[in-house]
Amino acid sequence: MNDYQNILSTEQKISEGQQASIIQEEAEMACIAAARRAPSAHNAQPWRLYPDASASNATYGSYRLFYAYADKLLADPDDRDALLGMGAFYETLALAAQLEGKQAIFEPGVVQHGDGLELGRVHLQALPEGTAPDPLAPFIAQRQTNRHPYQSRPLPKGLQKELQYLGCTLFEPRAIAPLVSKASIMAWKDTRFVTDLKTWTRFQGNPPDGMTCECLNLSWLDRQALRFALWRGHLSALLACVYAQRDVYLTSRSATIAVLSAPDREPLTLFECGRRLLRAWVTINATAYSYHPISIVIDQPTVNELSSKVKNPVAIFRVGYTPKAAPWSNRRLT
Ligand SMILES: Cc1cc2nc3c(=O)[nH]c(=O)nc-3n(C[C@H](O)[C@H](O)[C@H](O)COP(=O)(O)O)c2cc1C
Fold first, then answer.
1. Which residue out of 139, 140, 145 has the highest number of ligand 1 atoms within 8 Å of its CB and is therefore the one to mutate?
2. For residue 245, how many other CB atoms are within 10 A of its CB?
């Protein structure tokens, strides 16, 4: 090989190496962008991923995963919803990674910081050759919340089994409706619940976080009623009863109410539970059924009554079929 060929092959090697690194970086960015589509209570998006400077292998590929207290909700004092959302974020990332020929590996390591809770490290690596892709991965982009009334047509047996396998107990809507009524009345009387709604409801524009009135499926009249409650800060018992009718109606217009339980409420247990929650959600949407959480039943003291039906419930949601599409919610870019 002459000098010219030597120089050329070195240049080629560098450019091939650079190209490979750009491709890897782009694939990782695609995984992280897809992970941002994860669900979170009030669409607060409390997750942060920081490149792990201590990782020996590369500047990218390893990240530290944080729950940021800046996005903490008042009505979530024990961080249950936030940690479920963190698990849902990681599982969304893990499924999205598979579509990019990668696998996500979670290395747990809880560290308390002043401004957040570090849960551990996430490593994105090449998916080993011959690994069968996760069957849920192709459906990750279909996941969303649909707050329309549902038809009462029962869930397919296969879907019921899958949800039970993921740790859900399924109830007839009428068995849960009285609890939803109590929880909703308590919530509308609760300043923390109304303040969270005030912070995260978006009445105008195309905001990158929070919930728009379109996503909440609010009519003009519903919006005026909500504005009034936000202005008051909380409602009287009588008004709370009137407002609660909407949640009761939606509960009755469901095929099933599913309750997810956890062995305990430790941060990493809730994180793992959030991963199962996300899998249940994607499984439901992949079957063309819809999903809508009704977390007030667990946020309010009604959780004690629910606990007599299911041990340690951490999430509760409506499931059913509706032909009505729901609008897509937004996400922050960083
Ligand atoms: C842990 C958790 C709790 C939630 N609780 C509620 C709820 O009580 N009511 C509701 O309407 N949506 C609830 N949501 C749905 C979020 O508002 C929704 O995920 C977010 O606005 C983003 O919208 P998307 O799911 O359509 O992407 C919850 C989501 C998570 C992850």
1. 145
2. 11
3-class state of residue 294 by DSSP: coil
Atom number, ligand 1, closest to the C-alpha of residue 40: 31
Is residue 91 domain-shared with residue 173, that is, in the same domain? Answer: no
Same domain, 137 and 228: no
Using the 3D structure, point to which of 78, 107, 141 is the last residue of a domain.
141
Residue closest by Cα to atom 19 of ligand 1: 39
Does residue 225 lie in a domain region? yes
Q: What is the pLDDT of residues 115-151, one digit of tens each?
A: 999 999 999 999 999 998 899 999 999 999 999 999 9
What's the pLDDT score for residue 56? 61
Residue type, 155: L
Q: What is the CATH number of the domain that holds 299?
A: 3.40.109.10
CA distances from 111 to 10, 165, 249, 271 (A): 44, 31, 43, 14
How many folded domains does the chain comprise? 2
Q: Atom 10 of ligand 1 has which residue's CA nearest to it?
A: 293
Q: How far apart are CA 302 and CA 72, in angstroms?
A: 22
Q: What is the pLDDT of residues 45-63, one digit of tens each?
A: 999 999 998 866 554 599 9
179 and 106 assigned to the same domain: no
* Residue 177 pLDDT > 70: yes
pTM, rounded to two decimals: 0.94
The set of protein residues with a Cβ atom below 6 angstroms from ligand 1 is 39-43, 81, 84-85, 88, 144-145, 147, 211, 292-296, 329
